[in-house]
Amino acid sequence: MSQATGTDTTGTGVIQSVSGPVVTARDLDARMNDVVYVGDEGLMGEVIEIEGNITTVQVYEETSGVAPGEPVENTGEPLSVDLGPGVLDAIYDGVQRPLDVLEEKMGSPYLDRGVDAPGIDLEKQWEFEPTVEVGDEVGRGDVVGIVEETVTIDHKVMVPPNALEEDETTEVTAIESGSFDVTETVAELANGTDVSMHQEWPVREPRPSENKKTPRTPLVSGQRILDGLFPIAKGGTAAIPGPFGSGKTVTQHQLAKYADADIIVYVGCGERGNEMTEVIEDFPELEDPANGNPLMARTSLIANTSNMPVAARESCIYTGITIAEYYRDMGYDVALMADSTSRWAEAMREISSRLEEMPGEEGYPAYLAARLAQFYERAGYFENVNGTEGSVSAIGAVSPPGGDFSEPVTQNTLRIVKTFWALDADLAERRHFPSINWNESYSLYKDQLDPWFQEHVEEDWPEKRQWAVDILDEETELQEIVQLVGKDALPEDQQLTLEIARYLREAYLQQNAFHPVDTFCPPEKTYLMLTTIKTLHDEAFDALEAGVPVEDLVNTEAAPRINRIGVQEEYEEYVEELKADITEELRSLY
Amino acid sequence: MKEYQTITEISGPLVYAEVDEAIGYDEIVEIETDQGETLRGQVLESSEGVVAIQVFEGTSGIDRNASVRFLDETMKMPVTEDLLGRVLDGSGRPIDDGPEIVPEERQDIVGAAINPYSREYPEEFIETGVSGIDGMNTLVRGQKLPIFSSSGQPHNELAMQIARQASVPEEEEGDDEESSEFAVIFGAMGITQEEANEFMEDFERTGALERSVVFMNLADDPAVERTVTPRMVLTTAEYLAFEKDYHVLVILTDMTNYCEALREIGAAREEVPGRRGYPGYMYTDLAQLYERAGRIQGREGSVTQIPILTMPGDDDTHPIPDLTGYITEGQIYVDPDLNSQGLQPPINVLPSLSRLMDDGIGEGLTREDHADVKDQMFAAYAEGEDLRDLVNIVGREALSELDNKYLDFADAFESEFIDQGFDQNRDIDETLEIGWDLLSMLPKEALNRIDEEFIETYYREDDSEREVVEAAD
Questions:
Q1: What is the predicted ipTM?
Q2: Chain B contact for A306, CB < 8 A?
Q3: End-to-end CA, chain B
Q4: Does A70 contact B at CB distance below 8 Å?
């Protein structure tokens, strides 16, 4: 956290009262959202209310034992994050303190209080390679050089966006390649700005951009139901609501592992400690599907587990999105996963109730909808201030109480996001994973992404998708009848449709996240799988028309092999052979 | 020591007192009444001049002349290995007439959060000997896996069975020293004396008491005390696990009573209530308990939690099971319908879940085919369950041959796999073999979740190969 880099204080006050994470102080000269140090132990906090001489502070650490009369010191700075090489391959708590450094500093596996650490290593040397020369004109946000941050990512050192006015340029007066730490000046500008690799940015303020564009490229996730039926765009927003046990976290992990973004920011907001540990243990060992490098090389993790102080949970979402914006400015496509935004909303509710604010719906503060909207609006496909294009995709899990989607967090989220992946407890119960309900889910990006799929996969991608949707819709209707009269009472063609729909559900929509091959399914394979089922459909209906009884059509040798396409590494040959076998077998029946 | 006779207000479990010096948040307080009785409490809110105190034993007997002493420290639990075999009250004081406990250390009961970076991911299988758990929803060391039950169900019997049988396979062949490192800590919150007796008798009968620590807050004990009992329990568990290398199994019953106590305090403080009157911070509060399960890198021991909660109205959308489910790593459902059918234990595997099982099972851990067998059984049982509704309307004759097989499977699954009795201890091999016996009732082609290789090895081609079961009807 950047306050550790400059601990000058601008004023002190005295604690007046303590109630959980909320502390009030007298005589503190502070602005809203200034970061303060509370008590003799110097616990980090943030000003959230000023009333006359009384300042209210939310404290990011446990407040047991803190007493009135102890001092409060103001840093005079808003809550900021440290940006620079070293953010990737790092794991932070909610206020960007690196957890590995904390473990070392505290000498204990438990999180102690009053220990601060900068978000990036201030002493580590990086090899800086300039991309501009002395005499070149640069504007705000322009890249002056490159540092190899990880094996996967080149970190672009930029002129801070607040160093110059919009459209203003200035001359580079000195720049050199070499080995520097992040605080050293790597370039000097004529207007007096010294550019270093280290920037600070207040988390609650979006970084500036030129303008927002309509996203037209999909964020390919390697998950069949997402890519195939409900795609999200690079720069898009999505919500994954679902009751506990329906697979929110697994879906988020799958996206973090396989989405074709350049950078992943994963925010574990108020979730389980063991789950974060799993990510910490797995990601360095997993391979990035794009280049085979360790997955951690493109990932920044923020782990604020459910038992960490609630105020830090409120801020962790902002910490995450600010980091995402910083890499967007370099021209990268960033995907941010927030698991779960409900815990974030609950943190707001808890703080709000301690402040005795008038509650809105279900005790949530009246500004809940506004905060959610502000967060998701920071996502998008941007034209950056330096002329490059980059994107931030935001994917938020929602944990509605009792799995009831009518509650405020889900509803307010749905008003903003354009992709909705509804998780379903019934599907999860029968171990249909990912348990995304195909009737309730939607993607409003479908049409604007179709040209990409047509160009990169196959021309009839939209038609094939529509065919699958139609079959699944028809199945839903037929199932209602089946529940009343049984399957055998249906006409033969409808029985056959049910059989086809079953393959769609079991082979196409289900995907085993724990199978080494099936876990990632490229769009080409998604497409081929669908065409195989379509082949079965067409051939079977031809046979039916030729008079073959439906019992013979559903008991073929070849068709069940569709269920194994997912686990085939050499899927192209397999599918080819399978299609031929299906055709041959069905045609032999008449 | 600071002492005052300045009580200004007494309301429910809360006492407000004027003070002229700084009192720390969460500090411990002793209140002495006129009758010479000493009550204990904790600072809930501290402002200049006035503090709010929550009294554990309840406020009856306190008047405005009572004296208030601030002990200048937060609540501590005296811990030592000698606690094993002892019975304590809900605030950690011995009630078993045993010798005085000489603490080795006094630890803060609030307990700091474990740094996720320092945790070790739990992946060691715990064999509970219960097929519904081992086979379908495997428990691993360091997991928190609650039992979701409702009033009148045998959740206590299930918890006792787990406590009795739980073992880690590789230890069984090891020497006694290894297996003696297993400890059970039992935290009772607001359960009846009768329930408590059941547990105690079982502990004594099986000799489990020697390796147990029992904390008893009974139904007629002060409700506010319940808010500290689980913290005492978990502080002891952490000490034994991470400093004394024990594998600790913590059973907390009944979490519903704990949450009721939270609500009571919230109401007394006139807080803005969240859902159904429970405080808005209940998620955070529960997380601070449940998240104390786990393993830590470089430490031998582990803390595994099995909290039991009775869902009011058997409704899992009630805030208590709901918030619990969002924090814990799965849940085991005890089902009233299965119970009335006489199944022991009446575990409904379909809504049950163990989030950590995927990494805890498989080759070298349990058996290579475990994951596939589990997936297939879930799918087949769910299919059979669905068909039961249909059968009620159209009758068996109207169903296809395959559908009839699924129905038979579902019946056999309940009678053979789940209904093992509270005294039978099955090892994982036996559980999986029964699984194969049952799956072999279905045609090979229907086993689409199982690797062909395993079907080759384990599928019973004809009935004579079955090891344990004959079909249900």
A1: 0.84
A2: yes
A3: 75
A4: yes
